[in-house]
UniProtKB/TrEMBL annotation, chains A, B:
<dbReference type="InterPro" id="IPR011051">
    <property type="entry name" value="RmlC_Cupin_sf"/>
</dbReference>
<protein>
    <submittedName>
        <fullName>Mannose-6-phosphate isomerase</fullName>
    </submittedName>
</protein>
<dbReference type="GO" id="GO:0016853">
    <property type="term" value="F:isomerase activity"/>
</dbReference>
<feature type="domain" description="Cupin type-2">
    <location>
        <begin position="34"/>
        <end position="102"/>
    </location>
</feature>
<dbReference type="Pfam" id="PF07883">
    <property type="entry name" value="Cupin_2"/>
</dbReference>
<keyword id="KW-0413">Isomerase</keyword>
<dbReference type="InterPro" id="IPR013096">
    <property type="entry name" value="Cupin_2"/>
</dbReference>
<dbReference type="InterPro" id="IPR014710">
    <property type="entry name" value="RmlC-like_jellyroll"/>
</dbReference>
Length: 104, 104
């Protein structure tokens, strides 16, 4: 048994990405952000679909049709493969814990 | 955008199982329990692996080697295919929200 809120680094100079489950078909990842955004305003353009949940904290996702979604605790979105997006904001005052499931 | 804590039925005569994502390879499911346990103390014996997270509430999982794990908010376990298990307890005083990812 592991806890999603444990082993959070005291300092977060970079976002933290950790695989929880990894198989050829699916990857479950924990992401920890604290004020981070996607570096250089680049777009994520992924070969896999990504279902993402904000378990704790707050964040904003920007899509390349200029739609921005503000995610709070419990909010989840499904990002289709090659749906270009970036993390445009995360709360600088607390850790945001994301759960992401990448799948084909 | 959907919220994991929204649309919770006021009454829960039965556990609620809802697919969030379903493909041939992966299924993400929300489960809502309130005092429920696995009916008739039967064992779940599944063809797929199941990664399960308690997002809110508390529950106990019993494995057929008699090991019981008490899951609280943020706790997650990975249940391998055909690892027999049952839900032996869920908090009767609040909803327990589970997130389950079934994968091959």
């Amino acid at each position: 048994m592991t806890n999603l809120f444990s082993n959070i680094p005291a300092k977060l100079p970079e976002e933290v990405f950790e695989d929880i489950i990894k198989t050829p078909d699916v990857r479950i990842e924990r992401i920890i952000s604290k004020g981070h955004t996607t570096p250089n305003n680049e777009w994520y353009d992924q070969d896999e679909n990504e279902w993402v949940l904000v378990v704790k904290g707050e964040a904003k996702l920007l899509f390349d049709d200029e739609k921005e979604v503000h995610l709070k605790e419990g909010d989840h979105v499904n990002i289709l493969a090659h749906q270009r997006h970036q993390v445009s904001w995360t709360d600088p005052n607390q850790e945001t814990i994301w759960l992401a499931v990448f799948y084909k």
